[in-house]
């Protein structure tokens, strides 16, 4: 489905962003407080590039869906979620630079044997995590993918519902790729679709709506 392709593309763009951000972090770690300002500036540029790319991909995704998508209600909150996650990634690495990265890097410049190797390993892999709206901790790339998928899926449903209504349909059938799914073939009144939207059309759902025959 197109919404899954969109999700995969967004995730790849985000992973490229975090790879560049982490590489820049490792470049400046241990270079003193002056490096923090340059890292922040570089990071903000990377965030701007990420958001620009996400906006372009989102426009390309939404355009074929037509006018059934309430764009501001779907697009703006999702892009703001992505922006907030990217800013948190940058801020977390700035905190690392200010709160211990310099001391670790200074120690790495001295013969330290196995201890130095452990510190080097720690610096090589900054772990980027974020919390969702319920306060649960996630790997950042997984949460971005989850938010992207929910946005794309809900926008697809908006467009499909609008299309069915334009065609004069009042009832639609829920179908799944797996015909043995317990809700496969369930009929729903389009006027009452919001009553089942959260339970059936959740972020991980593969359900589709088709015209009831």
Structure report:
The protein has two domains: 2-149, no CATH class; 167-211, no CATH class. The chain has a three-stranded antiparallel sheet, covered by helices on one side. It has 213 residues and is mainly alpha-helical. The radius of gyration is 22 Å and the shape is elongated. A hairpin with a 5-residue loop joins strand 1 (129-131) and strand 2 (137-139). The chain has helices at residues 2-28, 34-62, 71-108, 113-124, 140-166, 194-200; strands at 129-131, 137-139, 171-175, 187-189, 208-211. It has six helices and five strands.
Chart the SSEs and their pairings.
Blueprint: H1 2-28, H2 34-62, H3 71-108, H4 113-124, E1 129-131, E2 137-139, H5 140-166, E3 171-175, E4 187-189, H6 194-200, E5 208-211
Antiparallel strand pairs: 1-2, 3-4, 3-5
Helix pairs in contact: 1-2, 1-3, 1-5, 2-3, 3-4, 3-5
Give the CA-CA distance, first to last residue. Answer: 23 Å
Report the uncertain regions. 101-121
Question: What shape does the CA trace take?
Answer: elongated
Which percent bin holds the helix content? 55-70%
Q: Order of strands across the widest beta sheet? A: 4-3-5
State the helix count: 6
Give average pLDDT, whole number: 85
* Number of separate strands: 5
Described by strand count, sense and barrel closure, the largest sheet is: 3 strands, antiparallel
What's the domain count? 2
Question: Whole-number radius of gyration?
Answer: 22 Å
Beta-strand residue percentage? 5-15%
H and E string: HHHHEEHEEHE
| SS content category | mainly alpha
